[in-house]
Amino acid sequence: MSYKLRTFGKWILAGEHTVLRGGPALAFPIQSRFFDLEFIPGTEKYKVVVPKTSTVPADVFERTLLRGLELVLQDIDDLNGTFFLNSNIPLSSGLGGSASICAAIAKLFYTFEWLSSDEMFTFCRNLEDMYHGQSSGLDVAAVLSANGILFKKNFGFEKLEVRWRPNWYLVHSGIQSRTKDDVAKVKSLFQSDLKFATEIDVRMQKAVEAATQALSMEQEQGLPVLVEAQKIAADCFASWDLVPKPMENTMKDLYKAGALAVKPTGSGGGGFILGLWPSGIVPETSFDLFSVYA
To answer: What does the H/E/C string look like for 209-272?
Structure first.
């Protein structure tokens, strides 16, 4: 008998960082990016098998697994056998690499009856703290969901109403940044300039509200509202000093390639960039873009 599980990545439209302070955020799962986990029980001590192509190395998975076992008061000796894993979600990229690992482990523990369905979200959020320092729960909520979500830290999440299909693409900025470091940078701004930091949070919340409204409209009316919402969100990242020069240059190049709006997605500082193009347009660029619907 074996246990096979797949979890998906995610991307964030707006609400990054402010979500830690109770602000709303919009996030979506992405099925072209996934984490596969198979566990085959055995009689010998557990081992982890990972192909060279996997973006998640064995030691990262093992540390997460051991922490997960601590949270459910189980011992690694209860898991004799072999773990096979594979992932195409880059870590530290803004696409939910850590959340997908946590969700896969939660689903495995659920099959073992170590977790109930009601406990899975809280377990994942607590487990993801080891990556983020303080997880809002947004990433794991998006990974566990089959649809776009409107998330609030202290209130949970709900399915997002989407009446049309924006032409979104993702592209890597070419640099990486640790979420913990990005969160710490934003926190330090609150210590050095509380008024300015609070103003940025208010702007990001307005971006979420505008994007939510845009998606609930018909496309013709919603597109200009969505463009403005993404630009506001992008400006928040710039105000947080989370758009390093190489990332800024890539964003400028995407505008030259016809994008209507571009912004970092995730914690910023690097990782992926979200671009919005006119409907029906396939971007012509040298960058390795892929559709959020792929």
So the answer is: HHHHHHHHCCHHHHHHHHHHHHHHHHHHHHHCCCCCHHHHHHHHHHHHCCCCEEEECCCCCCCE
